[in-house]
Fold each of these.
Amino acid sequence: MFYHRVTLFCGHYGSGKTNLAVNWALWLREQNLPAALADIDVVNPYFRSKDSEKELSAAGVRVVALPFANSSVDLPSLPSEVYGLVQRRDVYAVLDIGGDERGALALGRFAPYIAEENDYEMFFVVNFFRPLTPDAESAMEVLREIEAATPLKFTAIVNNSNLGEETAPADVESTLEEARRLSVLSGLPLAFTSVCARLKDRVKADNLFYMELQKKIF
């Protein structure tokens, strides 16, 4: 598996990008790298990377979240600490970006710093089991909408197709061809397919990234 100094996860609402961002930050720590996770999702106030703050902090991952995460207030203000994460070069930053073009606009504030350093990966996260991204063509529309809202362009695709705790190996395998089609349509490489850790060694595919599901706090 590869990594860059800044890793951004962005995709449609329900794609599972927050789960991926949390697990990616934990994986960076497993590589003995200084890691921080910034939640700048101004679209969905109810499913936050902050939900895993205790686990992340215990692993040595710094968490930067919106001021009103895990509350009933949805104020799209971004903490100043995020600027520090993208500007300093001594930490590996993971950014959880909002799930549509409006959420991607928040990224525009930090894009110049990220582009200047040019050591980043911006993953388009797709879940083909979600209603608005059932196939490669639909996912491609979402990808272009998000790209139009930010100066940064996607660098790779992550197939995060799942049905939550009910996901079976055959479910993941059934989406592999659609993920390859999206790769061809977009001209972007398929970086990996993410799989719940409980399915380890049961999914027949290359480039798998195993992760634990994040628990949602209500």
Note: Residues 138 and 206 are 24 Å apart (CA to CA).
Amino acid sequence: MIFGEVPLADARGALLAHSLQGETRRIAKGSKLTDDDLSELAAAGHAFLTVARLEPGDLHEDEAAVMLARALVPDAAAQNIRISGASAGRVNLYAGSCGIVQLDRARLEAVNAIDPMVTIATVPDHHRVDADGMIATIKIISYAVPNASVEKAGQGAGGAMRVIAPVVGTATLIETRVTADVPSDKGRAAIRGRLERMGVELHDRIVVRHREADLAEAVRAAKGGLVLILTGSATSDPKDVAPQALRLAGGAVTRFGMPVDPGNLLFLGTHQGRPVIGLPGCARSPALNGADWVLERTLCGIDVTSEDIAAMGVGGLLKEIPTRPMPRRESRS
């Protein structure tokens, strides 16, 4: 691409680099200059223009952005991604449904390593997204780029991103109480909100005493495709009431504790082929916590291993929540 200042008379057919006011109208940057445009600018006193002109083998910014998008998303239906139209060298990618974004970081980094003018920016891997939420933007920075750069950037990038839709349709939340009083509905409401935004139905409320036998019986009777446990007293050990109740019900505990704050006191397990998540107390707040990361992946059928949870610690220091019993910030006396 040729870029620079030229006499106005030599600018016909070039792309205007900067928006300019003509005699009667404004001419936007990126416009392919016509004789009428040049007359407008000449009448306004412009003698020289900064323009871009494509050379053989170059692609216009919009054409390049579309070409790269199609290379990244060769099967929009299978990848559950919608490709937008192109404008000003930009094409956006949107989720076809709610779910979790799954990215191949190495292949996407390879796209950005080819030519600084050819770029893609994405949400983080395993980011929860709503239907039609933006997951990536492709931007061609210059007005034109070599076709070879776009072809090279797209090589091997097909399928490097996709949106995984939820596969769990129903969930059961079991709450425990430590007194005769029924727990506040605040926690259930926060969890219902999390499930509803993923299209998951929450079964009728279940509240039992904070005892292993009572909780185990409720786990056995739970009808949801996912079982959630929210205890009235914090689960502080792998052999505490809730994990032991899961074992007593015939299930297994695969992980206790996570290096995400808030969210440390989560446990994960299974019961008769269903995932079971023991929620930390911070799940009573709608604010982001570590349980969200495990819950969202589980709802989408993504296997969450103990190693996966261990890896969540880097980037796992999340925003403080008002209900935290011991705030991170030290008090000043």
Note: The longest helix spans residues 61-72.
